[in-house]
Amino acid sequence: MLGKCLCGQTTFQLDLPKIKAYQCHCSLCRAQSGTSSSLGTIVPVENFSWLSSRSHIKSWVKESGFSSDFCSNCGSPVPNELRGMAYYWVPVGALIDATSVEIVAHPCTDSKAVWDSIADNSVQYGNLPDINTFIHELNAD
User: Which PROSITE patterns match (predicted)?
Assistant: First the structure.
């Protein structure tokens, strides 16, 4: 699966047949995505590769550890490696040829916008679930 930012300067590839994704409804993800939730996934580093240089990617890190990587040319969110873990966070909206995406979870529903509604039956977490359990759910067959 190929992915890119809006301007095409950042390109990457996932070696996966399908994507299990989540929609995070926390205030940070809403601000980062500019919409009701952030649609993302977490993939093992061995299933991820950069196709372009990363020299134009900028990072912003909040004191809590939340980080946001983005293309310095167009501002699109781009994948970033999870601190101290062999995984990448990937914004699913950046995938240009994803034919199989399944939303499996909705974290942070306790802080979702009052106008936001969840239209599927995926598992909902009031807050952030345990990261290791969550990664397993996103990568289980």
Answer: CENP_V_GFA (PS51891)
